[in-house]
Design goal:
The complex is a heterodimer of chains A (277) and B (221).
Chain A (H helix, E strand, L loop, with lengths): L8 H15 L5 E14 L2 E14 L3 E5 L6 H8 L7 E6 L2 E2 L5 H10 L1 E4 L11 H11 L4 H14 L15 H12 L6 E5 L7 H18 L2 E6 L3 H5 L2 E6 L2 E7 L6 H16 L2
Parallel strand pairs in A: 3-8, 3-9, 6-7, 7-8
Antiparallel strand pairs in A: 1-2, 1-4, 4-5, 9-10
Helix pairs in contact in A: 4-5, 4-6, 5-6, 6-7
Chain B lengths: L1 H9 L4 H8 L3 H14 L1 H30 L6 H31 L2 H9 L4 H39 L2 H5 L13 H29 L2 H6 L3
Classes of the chains: A alpha/beta (277), B mainly alpha (221).
The structure holds adenosine-5'-triphosphate (ATP) and magnesium ion.
The site of magnesium ion (MG) has 3 residues of chain A, from helix 2.
Chain lengths: 277, 221
């Protein structure tokens, strides 16, 4: 296979120079945003979905982004993940300004540095669990045997060792989200971005998914950034960033969080559900 | 400090790795495309069926004209006008049918295209995947469709005007009285079916691939 037009060995070298060191944890901050703004145009009306967000997220942190519906959580998710371009301001991933990256570098970043998890799971319906997990490794150029081995290992890790060859339609919502988590970890990313990962799951399954993300966060030292409505997330978060109308309303450190009461009530509910089965 | 940074940087991706990612082998694109065609067989058959029927219709019109010529039908002005009209309709029905089928089949996968972009697929890989898929489907459907149109219309002509007609038809590349024979028209129909399929798939796939990933993911149909 020939190199696609536009990519020369020099170019590949350049990508390595620009992203290589950055990928290797040079700075304390994995994600920084500066004066981040996003304005959508709806006919003649301009909607300011983000109106100046400054964030500094440290390596290994577990961050929850909370806020009412329409406050801009998903918009922020898209900006940090390089899935959409800001109207103004910058996003730095490992100190690299996303606006400076070309298409190859952006694909590289999405493939290796960031793992995405969605509310709707977004698995590829025609592929089995294992194929879904190995797909990002195909894009990363991992040889087939290694892909398979690592895919199986990841699916085992999320508790789906016996569901390798099931299609998404043959899995429950919680199981699909586990596959999506395994897929997000396929290329050992330094950031996991999740947009309402528990939004389509019941209370108990949601709690399991949150627990799994927390475990992986501690085990692999990966930074987890999760947009959510789910108050259960607060318990595992190092920091909670509350946003409202496209700006940060406040940031709470874990130590100051006062949610035990709310969570105790939820735990009781889950217990009840579990006992009555 | 500088030492430490340098040491970490040296553990970064190698040039070979980057190149491997970027020039994803064609075989990988081919495998994924093939899976799509076979696993969604029902859906593929509907799409391919439309291509099949479109090309079969076009080819049957060509065969009908050839049979009429072979039967010694007089090609006066109104007859020629009628056949021209039929051939034009043949082209149009073929074109609209194919474009519609592939447009649908790509549009319903915008979200998957968005997901693949999130997983690190290059736009060119996505476009290549659809190109292979549409090309494969177009080729099989057009080859068989053209043959079906040819055979059915030949049988019909033989039934109408006697088997002797078949012997007098121009099966080869050129016609006896000048012009082209059925082989040429068959190849034309197949090529048209395939080219239209590829174009009809590539344009929406390229549009989806060049969208921001967030927009491709958001697309609902
Ligand atoms: N593609 C778009 N076009 C126009 N407006 C948009 C678009 N995407 C988001 N918006 C607007 O931007 C604002 C923020 O939307 P966003 O999806 O980020 O909210 P959210 O916090 O994720 O909400 P939810 O909790 O309901 O998911 C909303 O007012 C929304 O209407
Ligand atoms: Mg949202």
């Amino acid at each position: 296979m020939q190199m696609p037009e536009g990519l020369t060995p020099e170019k590949a070298e350049e990508i390595q120079e620009r992203l290589g060191p950055a990928l290797e944890q040079v700075s304390e901050y994995v994600v920084r945003t500066r004066n981040l703004r996003k304005t959508y145009q709806m006919g003649k009306v301009l909607v300011g979905a983000l109106r100046g967000v400054d964030l500094d997220i440290k390596r290994g942190e577990y961050i929850s982004i909370m806020g009412p519906s329409g406050s801009g959580k998903s918009t922020l998710f898209n900006m940090i993940g390089g899935l959409d371009k800001p109207t103004e301001g910058s996003v730095y991933i490992n100190e690299v300004d996303l606006a400076q990256l070309d298409a190859y570098e952006l694909a590289w970043l999405r493939c290796r540095t960031i793992g995405y998890i969605f509310q709707t799971f977004n698995l590829i319906p025609v592929m089995t669990a294992l194929e879904n997990v190995t797909l990002p490794m195909i894009f990363a150029g991992v040889p087939e045997d290694d892909r398979k081995e690592r895919g199986i290992e990841l699916l085992r890790r999320v508790g789906l060792g016996d569901r390798l060859h099931h299609k998404p339609a043959e899995l429950s919502g919680g199981q699909q989200q586990r596959v999506a988590i395994a897929r997000a970890f396929a290329n050992d990313p330094s950031i996991i971005l999740a947009d309402e990962p528990t939004g389509n799951l019941d209370l108990k399954t949601g709690k399991e998914i949150i627990g799994l993300l927390k475990e992986l966060n501690e085990e692999k030292g990966v930074t987890v950034i999760s947009a959510t409505h789910d108050l259960k997330m607060i318990d595992v978060s190092d920091r909670v960033i509350w946003i409202r109308d496209g700006v940060i309303a406040r940031i709470e450190e874990r130590s100051k969080l006062q949610v035990e009461a709310a969570l105790a009530v939820e735990d009781a509910l889950i217990e009840e559900g579990g006992n009555s089965q | 400090m500088a030492e430490a940074i340098k040491e970490r940087a040296s553990r970064g991706p190698t040039r070979g790795e980057i190149r491997k990612q970027i020039q994803l082998p064609l075989s990988e694109a081919f495998r994924i495309s093939w899976r799509y065609v076979t696993i969604r067989l029902g859906r593929s058959l509907i799409t391919a069926g439309t291509i099949f029927l479109s090309v079969a219709f076009l080819m049957s019109v060509f065969t009908m004209v050839a049979a009429a010529k072979a039967a010694g039908q007089e090609l006066d002005q109104p007859t020629i006008a009628r056949y021209t009209w039929l051939v034009t309709m043949g082209f149009l029905i073929c074109g609209v049918g194919i474009v519609n089928a592939l447009l649908m089949s790509v549009t319903e996968r915008f979200r998957e295209i968005g997901t693949m972009k999130c997983l690190g697929a290059l736009d060119s890989f996505i476009v290549r995947m659809f190109l292979i898929e549409a090309g494969l489907m177009g080729l099989f459907a057009a080859l068989t469709g053209g043959l079906a149109g040819l055979l059915l219309m030949s049988a019909w002509s033989a039934f109408r005007a006697g088997f002797s007609v078949l012997g007098k038809m121009d099966w080869g590349w050129t016609g006896q009285g000048g012009g082209y024979g059925l082989l040429a028209y068959y190849l034309l129909s197949v090529a048209l079916g395939m080219i239209l399929s590829v174009i009809a798939a590539i344009i929406p796939a390229w549009r989806a691939a060049s969208l921001q990933a967030a927009d491709a993911l958001r697309t609902e149909i």
